């Protein structure tokens, strides 16, 4: 009788494998100060630095009446996602596969999908936290208005973060080694920053260049975030571009991902 009653108690106190994996991945994430800085701190510091330059806070006709700081808020938000999805996550996942960790985990109660889910969840959370910090810094130190169309802004954020993490997962799927994953990530990283408007806000780009950029997920995301900030519902074309890229990248990464 005592043995029968003791069994449920012991099983209830046993930690779930998925929760243990998430806790372990969280500790490993914060043990990499470089990833934490580039994903969660750098975009906010970039915006804060721009806000300290008086000319950057003045409205500009070239930016449609926005100041440079206001134009760079969605850029900084997207930059944190690009850092997470292209710089931080692919080397970790590829390294796990290269060292045989995912293959060994497939023979244990902890499935490899738990590691992938933890990695995607942690980097998504880090990106969204960075977005909140960026909005707060822009509001407090530069007087940048918070998004007026909250629902549209949140929808764009979710689509953008899923899209960039799907791109990172695809790079992880196609890269046999960590070094190759890093090389591919960097080669995609700089065009992604250009599309997001890091080098030049989309409002200042020539028309042909702006049209090309808006057909890419980060350019469409930047425009949608700007529209939601101004109080308008994001253009359905921009949301559609984000959704289409998300679908294509997610399908491709699931199709070609290998455990070993």
What does this entry look like structurally?
The chain has 260 residues and is mostly helical. It has one domain. Helix content is 76%, strand content 0%. It contains eleven helices and no strands. It has helices spanning 2-13, 17-30, 33-51, 68-98, 101-105, 112-142, 150-174, 178-196, 207-214, 217-229, 236-256. The protein is globular and about 60 Å long.
Helix and strand pattern = HHHHHHHHHHH
Low-confidence segments, given as residue ranges, are: 1-14
Strand content: under 5%
First-to-last CA distance: 46 Å
Mean pLDDT: 86
Helix-strand layout with pairing:
Elements: H1 2-13, H2 17-30, H3 33-51, H4 68-98, H5 101-105, H6 112-142, H7 150-174, H8 178-196, H9 207-214, H10 217-229, H11 236-256
Helix pairs in contact: 2-6, 3-4, 3-6, 4-6, 4-7, 4-8, 4-10, 6-7, 7-10, 7-11, 8-10, 10-11
Characteristics:
single chain, 260 residues
Task: Give me a quick take on this structure.
The chain is an all-alpha fold.
């Amino acid at each position: 009788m005592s043995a029968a009653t003791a069994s449920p108690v012991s099983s209830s106190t046993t930690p779930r494998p998925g929760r243990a994996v998430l806790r372990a991945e969280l500790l490993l994430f914060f043990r990499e100060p470089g990833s934490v800085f580039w994903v969660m701190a750098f975009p906010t510091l970039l915006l804060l630095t721009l806000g300290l330059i008086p000319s950057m806070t003045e409205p500009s006709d070239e930016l449609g009446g926005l100041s440079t700081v206001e134009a760079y808020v969605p850029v900084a938000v997207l930059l944190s996602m690009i850092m997470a999805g292209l710089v931080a996550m692919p080397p970790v996942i590829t390294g796990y596969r290269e060292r045989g960790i995912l293959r060994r985990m497939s023979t244990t109660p902890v499935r490899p999908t738990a590691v992938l889910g933890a990695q995607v969840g942690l980097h998504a959370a880090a990106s969204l936290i960075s977005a909140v910090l960026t909005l707060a810094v822009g509001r407090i130190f530069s007087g940048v208005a918070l998004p007026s169309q909250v629902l549209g802004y949140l929808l764009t954020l979710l689509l953008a973060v899923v899209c960039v993490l799907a791109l990172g997962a695809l790079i992880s799927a196609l890269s046999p080694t960590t070094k190759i994953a890093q090389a591919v990530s960097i080669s995609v990283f700089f065009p992604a920053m250009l599309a997001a408007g890091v080098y030049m806000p989309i409002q200042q780009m020539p028309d042909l260049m702006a049209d090309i950029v808006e057909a890419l997920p980060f350019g469409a995301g930047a425009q949608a975030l700007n529209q939601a900030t101004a109080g308008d519902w994001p253009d359905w074309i921009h949301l559609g571009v984000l959704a289409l890229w998300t679908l294509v990248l997610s399908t491709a990464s699931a199709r070609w991902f290998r455990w070993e």
